[in-house]
Amino acid sequence: MSPGRTAIYAFTRKGATLGRRICEALRGDLFLPRRLAEDFDAIPFSAVAPLVQSRFGDYGAHVFIGATGIAVRTIGRLIRSKVTDPAVVVVDQEGRYVISLLSGHLGGGNDLARRIAGITGGEAVITTATDQEGLPSIDVLALERGLSIGNTDGIKHVNAALLEGGPIQVFDPEDRMGLRRGIPAIEVVEVVREGDWRPGIPGLWVTWKEKVPIAKQLVLHPRCLVVGLGCNRGTTAREIYRVIRELFGSEGLGLGSILCLSTIDLKRDEEGLLEAASSLGTEIRFFPAEELDRVKVPNPSDMAKRYVGARSVCEAAAITGAGGGELIVPKRISGNVALAVAVAP
User: Fold this and answer.
1) Nearest residue to 325 (alpha-carbon basis) of 340, 341, 344
2) Alpha-carbon span 260 to 268, nearest angstrom
3) How many of the other CB atoms lie within 10 Å of CB of 265?
4) In terms of C-beta density within 10 A (0-12 exposed, 13-18 middle, 19 or more buried), how is residue 139 classed?
5) Last residue of a domain, which of 222, 253, 284?
6) Distance of alpha carbon 342 from alpha carbon 21, whole angstroms
7) Is residue 189 within 8 Å of 167, Cβ to Cβ?
8) Does residue 137 register a pLDDT over 50?
9) Which of helix, strand or coil describes residue 51?
10) How many domains does the chain fold into?
C-alpha cells in the first residue's frame, strides 16, 4: 500500500458499481463485502471498522460510498492530527453529493471531493470556511509553495484573521512564501526586523531556523537546507539520524527546512543513508566524484581524493545539492558521520 493511494469502500451493489468507476479513475483499491467482492474484482471484507482501523495510515485518502454516519463511526477513534490524518470523503451511492469529511486542506480532502464529483457528475460539499468564502487557506498555500508547518495550532489564528478581512503580519526576510508578489484577498503587513513583531496579532514567521512560536504566530519552514553527508560503510540509519538532529539542534536549524540529503554516488547502496532519508521524510541526491571535486570548499582533503576521487564529500555535496548555495555549516564529524549544511537560494 502507498500513502498516496486511495481506498474506496462500498456496502451495496449500487455503491459497488459506483465504487468501481471511482476506483478506476483514481487507480485506487476497492473494498467490498464478501458477497459482492468477486463480482466487482474487489478486495473482500467481513467488517469495515477493523479493516479501516488496520489500514488507516496506509492510504492517503479513504472514500466511503454510503451513509456519513458509517464513516464517522468508523474513523472516530482513529483521528489524531490535521497534519497526519488522511483525507476522508463520503459519497452517496447515487453519486449526487461528495462530502469532504476530514483533512480537507492538508490532507487534500477538498480537492479529492471535487475530483470525485467530476467523476460522478455530482456536487462537492465543502464546509471549510476559507473555501466557502473563496479565500486561500494559509496551510494549503504554504504546502503548495514548498514550506512545512512548524506549529499546526497557529493555522487557525491566521485563517481566522483572513476570514475577518484583517491583515496578517509576515516576517519573511527572504520572501520564501512569495507574498511580496501579492496574493488576492490577503493583506500583508511586512515585518522587516524581528523586534518589530507585534505580539498577539496573527501572522506568519517564515524561517529555516528553529523557532518557538508565540501567541497567534504560525511558523513556516521553507525547504531549502541541504545536508551533505559522508559516512563509513555500514553506518546505521539510527546514528545518521541522531547526528543530523544533534547538529540541527546545536546550530538552531529547523528540521522542517530540510530539502534533501546529498552525498557521493558511491553511497547509492548505503542502507543507513537511505533509511535515514526515509525517517526524515526527504529524498537523497547522489553526485559523481568528478562533479564534487570541482566544488571549492573550506576543508578539502587529499585523503578523501585518494579514496573516493573527490577532495570533499559532505561540503561539496551540500553545496552541489543546494544548486551552488551558501555553505552555512562547514564539515563536522561525529562518530562515523561527516556532514555539512548549505542553504539553497
Assistant:
1) 344
2) 14
3) 14
4) buried
5) 222
6) 47
7) yes
8) yes
9) helix
10) 3
Does position 2 have pLDDT exceeding 50, yes or no? no
Q: Which domain holds residue 26?
A: 6-127
Please say if the pLDDT value at position 131 is more than 90.
Answer: no
Sorting pLDDT into bands at 50, 70 and 90, what band is 132?
Answer: low
State how beta strands 43-45 and 61-65 pair: unpaired
Question: Residues 297, 315: contact at Cβ < 8 Å?
Answer: yes
Contact predicate 319/338, CB 8 Å:
no
Is the residue at 132 inside a domain?
A: no
pTM score of the predicted model: 0.73
Which three-class secondary structure state does DSSP give residue 327?
strand
Cβ atoms of 286 and 264 closer than 8 Å: yes
Computed on alpha carbons and rounded to an integer, the radius of gyration of the chain in Å comes to 24
- With 60 as the cut, is the pLDDT of residue 201 above it? yes
**What CATH number corresponds to the domain at position 34?**
3.40.50.11220
The grid coordinates listed for 264 are 557521493
Alpha carbons 180 and 174: distance in angstroms, whole number: 10
Is the same domain home to 241 and 198? Answer: no
User: 239: closest CA among 275, 282, 263, 209?
Assistant: 275
